[in-house]
Amino acid sequence: MTAKPSTAIEVLDDLDRAIINRLQLPLPIEPRPFAAVGLELGCSEAELIARTKTLLETAALTRFGPFIDAEALGGAFCLCAMAVPAERFDAVVEIVNGFEEVAHNYERDHALNMWFVLATDDPGTIARVAQRIEDATGCEVLLFPKEREYFIGFKVAA
What we know:
This protein is 34% helix and 15% strand. By secondary structure, it is an alpha+beta fold. The protein has two domains: 7-57; 71-144, Alpha-Beta Plaits (2-Layer Sandwich). It has a four-stranded antiparallel sheet, covered by helices on one side.
């Protein structure tokens, strides 16, 4: 599932906050992008990499990686939700996360307590994968296709 929040989030220093903000922007296309970003932030490449690892390990960051726009490549993605019985939640997480089309998966405190994103090579595959997940879990998969695109950045005071 996802990492649980840690108390380390409360003790971010100015450089940690600057790293979180900067890593939401594109990395420079060059042989040592972390060295270039470190220079921007006033730290070494090694310190930037070490702090990024610590931010991930303490769940101050839950993910660091590229964002691939499936639609721009002819594919599709869709936000999905399920109402999973609490006593089956962990088992269903394992099943859902076993599908290569599942991009990420989150637990929510709501009747629809499992939310995940499907990313596929073509738009027609979304419904088929959702059906396979339903068949494998016995839980209905609700599809919430995108109506409009939003770009949301999370910035912390640095």
